[in-house]
Design brief:
Elements: H1 2-10, H2 28-44, H3 46-53, H4 55-69, H5 76-90, H6 92-102, H7 121-150, H8 158-167, H9 169-193, H10 196-203, H11 207-220, H12 222-239, H13 247-265, H14 293-296
Helix pairs in contact: 2-13, 3-13, 5-7, 5-9, 5-12, 6-10, 6-13, 7-9, 8-9, 9-11, 10-11, 11-12, 12-13
Length: 299
């Protein structure tokens, strides 16, 4: 009688694969803990995080300028919320920084780029491409929803657009349908990536194994993961004010917090961590022998 209860409290593993990561039961308080730990990481490494994330406000400004330039202002909100779809991949360097700080190792901006030498980087890249495709599909879908409700006539100004959205039946339809469809996109991205990238970085699993484990975490903790998704979306939306500059703080905060959420969601890994072999430098005098390892070993 006590054994099943203990299993539920401490976590569950896949019945078909006893070596699968053990999923823990999360609580709503864990979200606050993850955010506080992420904030501590950000305060300890602020310059590094800002350097790593400076591309986000720059990208946001470029995207906003493109949107305004082509008079498709309604895409500003989908673009802002769409950061949540690609954010997990964009923050992989931040996960590495949090991992190193957790282990008490030296941390610098350059250490974030060690993910490029990770054995699972190809899997991270593949999942990142999948999330990017999801982001592009969401933007195209949002544009189609706007055309379906308002037609092809663009809004002349921001006040005009806001007025049309908030005071007309078509605008209410746009809000309901757009938020509903956007929720489905966010749900898919959240379930497959909530802990996938930190897991691949930490345990060097395949993208498929990471996505399956991420979905197991979401299935075991639906309320907590839904609340986490809401927090992420709300903070990213706030980060777009003013002119996307807030993302320089919000993105590193969420990136570090995601690492800590991953650490709370799974039992610790018992397998030794892979470390890439150190680079070996050869003097110019050894060229061209240094190009052939079998010849170099004879000397």
């Amino acid at each position: 009688m006590a054994t099943p209860l203990t299993t539920i409290q401490h976590g569950t593993s896949s019945a078909a694969d006893p070596a699968a990561p053990v999923v823990r039961k999360l609580h709503l308080d864990d979200i606050g803990t993850a955010l506080r730990n992420g904030l501590e990481d950000f305060k300890a490494m602020p310059s590094h995080a800002v350097v790593l994330c400076i591309i986000y406000p720059v990208l946001g400004l470029v995207l906003a300028r493109m949107v305004l330039g082509y008079s498709v202002m309604p895409l500003l909100f989908p673009l802002a919320t769409g950061f949540a779809l690609v954010g997990p991949f964009a923050a992989i360097g931040l996960y590495e920084m949090s991992r190193r700080r957790e282990l008490g190792e030296e941390v610098s901006a350059w250490h974030a780029f060690k993910v490029l030498r990770s054995p699972s980087f190809s899997g991270m890249l593949g999942l990142g491409v999948l999330l990017l495709a999801l982001f592009v599909t969401w933007i195209a879908t949002a544009q189609a929803i706007y055309v379906w409700t308002f037609g092809n006539a663009p809004a002349a100004t921001i006040p005009d657009f806001v007025s049309r959205v908030l005071t007309t039946p078509e605008g209410w339809s746009l809000i309901v349908v757009g938020c509903g469809v956007g929720f489905l996109f966010a749900l898919v991205a959240l379930c497959v990536s909530v802990i996938s990238f930190p897991m691949m970085l930490d345990r060097h699993t395949s993208a498929m194994d990471a996505m399956v484990t991420s979905m197991r975490v979401a299935a075991a903790n639906p309320v907590v993961i839904a609340a986490w998704g809401f927090v992420v979306a709300a903070l990213l939306l706030l980060g777009t004010i003013p002119f996307f500059l807030g993302l320089a703080v919000v993105v590193p905060l969420l990136g570090h917090a995601t690492w800590h959420l991953y650490r709370m969601a799974l039992e610790p890994n018992s397998q030794p961590r892979y470390e890439p072999p150190p680079k070996v430098y050869h003097s110019a005098a050894e060229f061209p022998v240094s190009l052939f390892p079998w010849a170099r070993d004879k000397h």
